[in-house]
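FAQ: What does a multi-protein file look like?

Like this. Sequence, then tokens, then the next protein.
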Amino acid sequence: MVAAILAVAIAAMVYVTKDFITTILLSFFFAYILYPVYSHLSRLTKRKHISALLSLSIVFLAFFVFVLTVLSALSTELANLTATQDALNETAADFINQTADSFFDRTKVFTDDNAPPILAPFIGDTIDDAKGRIGMILKVPVSKLLPEILPRLTTIVTELVDWIAKHLPIMMAQLGVAILLTYYLLVDGAESVEEFLRLMPERALIRRFLAELNSIYNSLFNVYLINSLLTGLIAAVGFRLLGVPYPYLWGMITAVFALIPMIGAGAVYFPVALYFLFIEDYTKVVAVLLFGTIFLNIIPENITRPTLAKAGAAIHPAITLLAFAAPLFVIGFMGVIVGPALYGFVLAAYRTRLHIMEEEAGVMVTPLGGPKPSPKSSFLSTEGLRRLGRKARSFISWLTRGRL
């Protein structure tokens, strides 16, 4: 009866907090990411609460700088667009007319050379008629098109404002909960884990599992985050030297895209190269592509990330790719956090189980994060290896029978 009541209470608790599940996950994620910074500040200040506030202030400062940079770029571009609207309209109209005329002229030449003699006059008249009709449409001033465009833009903006107004209360509540929960996790997180361990049986086993989990999460989260920040910093400096407009803004955006597998920094420097291609600055096109390929792809993926990953657990690249990429297509952007968390949890359980099997088989176990054993100490006896093989077969049979 007690167990049933407790299960119902837990289910009800999960139900009433379902709108904050994402907020809670984000709080745990931010607390884990900020904990190294908090630990360093705590050693300097000797005060937990001040260290937690300073750690959170770093996040708010980074977000505030990003928002100010975006707003500054938008205001500058809008001012330039307003000042040169007539020139832009004239340039765009000339470009469109020239492109259309060139297309129809080439099409007519092609049909005259390749179409059957009987059909050639008919096709030529059709092309001339289409060219005249489209030319009349292209000559319509932009001011006459605005009455058609503005109502649609107004509708889109109104719907966006309505959505923000509708969801603003819950978004503000979620933001407040996330801030407070992250703060308390930083201050009391370590003590809470120790208290949790005191309540658990098999404390040594749970500690081993948590040590594996921390090492794996360090490789999946901290390494990726630090690598993306370094990539964004390199991008900002490189774009500044190459003369790219708003280099610091593009550096911040590069840091964000560097977190996304299979997309990465290429989603930023390829459009930048296309921009220089459009304005016919071919030297900068080649420079941006070389810089992006070498400094934003090859070096971060093959030098920076492996160097940072030495402090954590070794994880196969295929598992890392699945952990970050697959959940994106199922639950959206939150998959970047939820996916590695789930994969890391299962991988930690698997490695803990292997650790237990090796201990039971009498095989020397490498301490977590310690030096590798010598070849002689890795194989104590043939009997130990036989016991390990029997344990492995038993474990695989246990999994295939569906007892996991």
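And here is the next protein:
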Amino acid sequence: MSIIRLKELKEMSKEKLEDKMLEMKKELMKAKTQVSSKQNPDKPGKIKEFKKTIARIKTLINMRGEA
């Protein structure tokens, strides 16, 4: 999963944003499971980036008033 820029998120519709948020949540769960099972994650900063992206998506949805 690559990093999604804010500019790219702003261009997406509500449905695409919600789909992307679900995808990010699944990836976050996988990364957290990997850490909790004492495996070394591929990229240590990945969890932080997933959390930030999910927060950005939620913020955009709320700013548009489409909650």
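Q: Is there any per-entry metadata?
A: Some entries carry free-text notes. For the entry above: The CA atoms of residues 53 and 61 lie 12 Å apart.
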